[in-house]
Amino acid sequence: MTEQEFPEQSAKRRRGEDPSENGEFHSGVDLSLLEALEKSHNGGVEVLDLRTMKKLVLSFERRLKENLEARMKHPDQPEKFAESEVELHNEIERLKIMAGGPELYPDLVALNTIPSIVGLLGHDNTDIAVDVVGLLTDLTDEDVLEDNDEPARVLVDSLVENNVLELLVQNIGRLSEGDPDEAAAIYNTLATIENIIEVKPAAAEMVCERTKLLRWLMGRIKVREFDANKQYASEILAILLQSSTANQKRLGQMNGVDAMLQAVAMYKTRDPKTSEEEEMLENLFDCLCCLLMPAENKEKFLKSEGVELMIIIMKQKKSAYGSAIKVLDFAMTKYQQACERFIDVLGLKTAFAAFMGKIPVNKKNKKERYEEELEERLISLIASLFGGVVRGSRRDRLLSKFVENEYEKIDRLMEFFIRYSDRVKEESERLDQLDLDDLEMDEDERYNRKLEAGLYSLQILALIMGHLWTSEHPGIRARLELLFKQQKLSRQYVNDILQEYHDNIGDIDGPEEKERAQAKVQRLISSLQA
Questions:
Q1: Which of 80, 259, 313, 409 could form a disulfide with 324 if both were Cys (CB 3.0 to 4.6 A apart)?
Q2: Separation of alpha carbons 128 and 118, rounded Å
Q3: Across the chain, which distance is largest between two alpha carbons, in Å?
């Protein structure tokens, strides 16, 4: 993510308010022992070591204790505890030096000061909570934790055990984006949550189970105006969704699909103004793709007219064009209703225009890889159509696209097929050479290497060819036979590719779904052999 700097924090506003029942924080640190230690080592802080850290912790705990006592003693006289608040702020700032010694984090946890630090997120003075957010961001910073896996794990485990996720999200709800300091604290809160998830991936589901973070993030991306926090909210949302089916379903139940469609709809007729805004839009589309993994969310997508919106975005030919194709690919994979809707709302014309290379190119996407990714998505999309629409007038309309203009779509299909076939052959030869050089790899690794080289797209193209052949349309079959002859290929070669695909279909959706998928491929193989 591209970072956007906030202005340096201005002079702190010292607000005194009545302490709530939750405003009391209790330290688990033995102050008497630490005081004795401090007295035996006078002098300023110079080198960050265990001794220095203990002195910092002692000083922080003492200022915290003084502040809590002053607030309890003079709850209605802010001027009586304002000075202790300033001193507490200074001590929190001093603790940031500990980010320079992440190897000492286990010792910090052992001193039992984490509960005191985390507890201050609920301090009545929001400025103190803002200070703590800044401290936590520094302590968990990716650059700080790099190469310190075990100390990072110890710190993060302690933070999570002391309810840091719950308190961070509670605190973010009371911060105002109109205040520069608090806007920066919102950004830092999201950064801290991201850092925690990086160290402890299970926290991605924990934070969604235990807090209202998903709801807050959804509300944030609905705001029309773009800023750094909206961008970061989109990134955190993508992180929470990308590897968690539970989070995908949870957000779907919160009307998340419709909210995401509304967010991307703002860009159906306009482009992002900056690279940061462009990145945010990509994050939103990534969130939408993640949401479309569970079948129940595909249904919500259909009801919210997501197919129609994606086609409109494609027709407008703005920068979201490629992302719309990607979303349609996710929506139509293994979902017949989306395939039918796509044909009903005249999506074929738009999709096949792109398939034939009529892809809008602007200065932002003038890249060979961009066009290639779109081609791969379109190939997958067309294969999904063949898999989802198996009979009737919709099937006829799909097949007719390959007949019109003297079978130009079949010619294009063969062009792709040859390109990916050549790539896979080159990779196979390279792997064979590695075997000769005594760098043998197992079959799974070889297969994965070939997939990366384009085997998956080659297999999908073979599937489309199989569907075309199975249609028994005389003109389509004649065109395919002519192209096979011109390219010195055979139907058996296509069958070999399909057989490899058949043999490697996984059971991620269960053994019954695997058998159904293999049976469909086997029918194509049998048709090509006839």
A1: 313
A2: 11
A3: 96
